[in-house]
Amino acid sequence: MKTRLKLELGQRDALASPTDHYGNFLNSAYRALTTRKYLFGIRKKFYFPELETSAAATTTDGTAYVATPTAALIVRGIWDTTNDAMLSWIPNETYWERTGRADTNAEGIPTEYTRRGSYIYLSPTPNSSSISLTIYYKKKVTLLSATGDKTEIGAEWDDPLIKLAAIHGMMRLKEYDFAEIEKKNWIEDVSALIDTYYDEAKAVRQHIQPDAMYLRR
Q1: Three-class SS of residue 154?
Q2: Which of 17, 51, 57, 202 has an alpha carbon within 20 to 30 A of 136's alpha carbon?
Q3: pLDDT tens digit string along 20-75?
Q4: How many folded domains does the chain comprise?
């Protein structure tokens, strides 16, 4: 990827040594692509199925929280696998206003949760050390560091990622005119690519909707 990026930016050896700016541009673009809700005004959400995952956690009796998975960017939901129930999300403020979190008489089976940094707080405070939870979350990608490293998203994003890294590089080099030209091309290509991610949802809706002949009755 760095070789192709170097070509995009005009084979500038000064960007490769002593600091690996090509690698920095790639990781900056990789992070932006996988964490930002929108890029360059594209009003379509980026959704990478490869980054949606889960991790197991177990409650501790009398402890109001469990650890957020290390790589979690966004917690999507929590399933109590022991009691076969989904926990409901509540805002931090709602949780902090509640009293009795340290009262053993107020403990019970958690039904709600809220995330605060590296911890997920449960309400009520667990009354058992054997409640198993499954935490569903979108993870943060591991940045590229070695030759041959592959991204954690589909290979179809390799070209857009390199182009985005080139745009980041041009912006850092204050080549704003060139960056704007590349942005327009990038937006057009990526908008079309994003649309393919909606095909699955469309297929589901089409599968369950009534036949057209019944709609006319």
Answers
A1: coil
A2: 202
A3: 999 999 999 999 999 988 888 787 777 788 999 999 999 999 999 999 999 999 99
A4: 2
Bridge partners, 37 (sequence order): none
Query: Per the confidence metrics, is the pTM higher than 0.70?
Result: yes
Residue 40 CA, distance from chain mean position: 18
Residue 118 CA to residue 96 CA, distance in Å, equals 16
How far apart CA 47 and CA 35 sit, in angstroms, is 10
Q: Is residue 209 part of a domain?
A: no
Half-sphere exposure in the Cβ direction for 134 (13 Å, CA): 10
Q: Is residue 213 part of a domain?
A: no
Q: Which residues pair with 53 in a beta bridge?
A: 137
Same domain, 23 and 67: no
Residue that has been written with the tokens 């000064």 in this structure: 14
Specify the residue for token string 């080099």: 173
Residue 118: C-alpha distances to residues 126, 153, 194 (Å): 18, 25, 31
